[in-house]
Amino acid sequence: MAQIEHSAAAHDDHDHKPHGFWNRWLTTTNHKDIGTLYLVFSCIMFFIGGSFAMLIRAELFKPGLQFLDPALFNSMTTMHALVMIFGAIMPAFVGLANWMIPMQIGAPDMALPRMNNFSFWILPFAFTLLLSTLLVPGGGPAGGWTLYPPLSLQTGKALPMMIFAIHLMGASSILGAINVIVTIMNMRAPGMTLLRMPLFVWTWLITAYLLIAAMPVLAGAVTMLLTDHFFGTSFFNAAGGGDPVMFQHIFWFFGHPEVYIMILPAFGIISEIIPTFSGKPLFGYDAMVYATASIAFLSFIVWAHHMFTVGMPLSSELFFMLSTMLISIPTGVKVFNWSTTMWRGSVSFEPPMLWALAFLFLFSIGGFSGLMLAIAPADFQYQDTYFVVAHFHYVLVTGAIFAIMGAVYFWLPKWTGHMYNMTLAKWHFWLSAIFVNVLFFPQHFLGLAGMPRRVPDYATQFTDWNMVSSIGGFGFGLSQFLFPYLIWKCVHGGQTATSKVWATPIGLEWELPSPAPYHSWAEAPSMATLAHGAPKHEVEG
Amino acid sequence: MSAEARVVMDRDQRRRVRRSALLLGLIALVIYTSFIVHSVLRGLR
Fold first, then answer.
1. Which of A7, A33, A207, A254 would you mutate first to test chain B, the one with the most B CBs within 10 A?
2. A271 included as an active-site residue
3. What's the predicted TM-score (pTM) here?
4. Which of B19, B44, B31, B2 is nearest to A113 (CA)?
C-alpha cells in the first residue's frame, strides 16, 4: 500500500511544508499545493476572460461601433472562449480534483506527483503565449474558438502561437487526466471499491477518460491547420482537393466530449453538496454512476448536431438529432436523483447548497434549450444566433461555474481551517444568480428574433434586450470581485472550522482535521474510518 | 524535487502505476496519429 515517506529535512518542519516561496510553489509535488496553484490560476483566467466579456457587452450595449473595431471585437469573442474554457473552467476542475481525489479515496497523494507539477506549470506558459497574440501584428485569433478554416487560416502571426498554445494546453490536460486515472485505479484505500467511491471521484474518472480520448483529436486538427498554413498541405483547402467540412467534423468530435469534460465534474460536485445539506445519502448512487458513464459514451456520437446546417444526408441528421435527444435520459435520471435526495430531507440553505440549487434550476434551462437546438429542422433557425449563446452560457456559467463556486464554498473551510463570512457569501450568490439571468435570459429572445452571434453591431430592433443583457453582464462581473475577497479573508482568519465543517457531511475528507494536514492519509484509513466516511454508509469491516 | 514527502509504493504497485500511465499515454498518441493518418488517406482517395 502506498504511504508517505518523510525526508529528514522535512521532519524539521511540523507540517512538512517546504520552506521558501519558490521551493514551496515552483517545485512542489504536493497534491494540495498543486490544487491551489490550479485554482489560483483559474481564478486569474476567470477575471481575464471576464474582462474580455465586459468589453463585448460594453460594445453591444447599443447599436453602432463604440469602443472596439470589428477585428478586435472578433478577437475578444475568440479569446474570451479560449481563456474561459481552457484557462478557467478546466483548470478549476483539475484543481478541485487535485485537492479532493486523494483525500476522498484515502490516498497520500496523486500517483505521479512530478508529472502533476509539470502538468500545471505548462499552463502559465501556454496562456502567456495565447494572450500575447493580442500584441502581434495582425492581432489575436479572431475566427472563433472553433477555428474553422478557411477563416482561421487568415489569422496573421498569431496562428502558430495559438496552435502551440493549444498543443500545450492539450498536453497539460492529457497528463493531468493520466494522473487522475492512475491515482484512482491504483491508490484507493483498501475497502474503497469502485462502487463505494464518492460521486466526485467517479465523475472525474470518467472525465479523465474523455480527456484522453478527446484532446488528441483537437491536437490532430490544429496540427493539420498548421501544416495547411505553413507546409503546403491541403487537408482543409478545397482548392487543393481538401475538405473544410472535414475540419468541422474532426473539431466537433473533440468539441462535444469537451462540453461534457466541463460538466461531468460539476455533476460530481452537485452530487456531493446536495446530500450534505439534505441530511440524507445520495438517492440512486449506482444509477448516478451509470448515468454519468452513459452521458460520456453518448457524447462521442452526437458531434454533428453542432453543424446541421452544413449539409449532410437526412439519415445523418436524424441519427445525430435522436442520439442527442437520448442524452436527456441519463441527465434526467441525475436531476431526478438530486431532487429525490432533497425529498423529505432536512434541507438547509448554506452557500454551497444555494449554488447547487441554482445549478439544478438553471442548468436544466440550458438542458431544455439544448433539446430545442437538437431538433434539426428547428436548428436551421437557431444556428449561429444568440439563442445558441444563451444556451451554452446557461450550461457553462450556471452549470460549470456555479458548481465550481459551490465546490469552493463547500470545501474552503476544510482547506483553510476557517469558516468564511456567510453573509457575504450569500450576497455573492444572490447577486450572481440574479444578474446571470438578467445577462443571459434575454439572449434567448434576441436569438429567436434573429440576432446573429459574433457581430459587433446589430439592427436597432435588438437594442432593448441588448441593453438589459449588458447591464446584467456588468452586474455579474462586478459581483464576482466578492469571491477573491471572501477567499482572501477566509485564508487569513475567521472562525475556526471543525473537522466535519457542516452538519451532516458524507465522505472521507471530513474524517481529516480542518485544515487538512499537508500530507493527508499518510497511512491508509482504517475500515472503521472508511465505513464512517463511505458515501453509502454500507462498508463492512 | 523539493525536500518534502514523496509517495512510496511497493514494487508491484509502482509497476502497475507506470504501466497504466504509459498505456494511457500511448492511447492518446495513437488517437492523435490516427486522425491525421485518416485525413491523409481520405485526401489520397
1. A7
2. yes
3. 0.94
4. B2
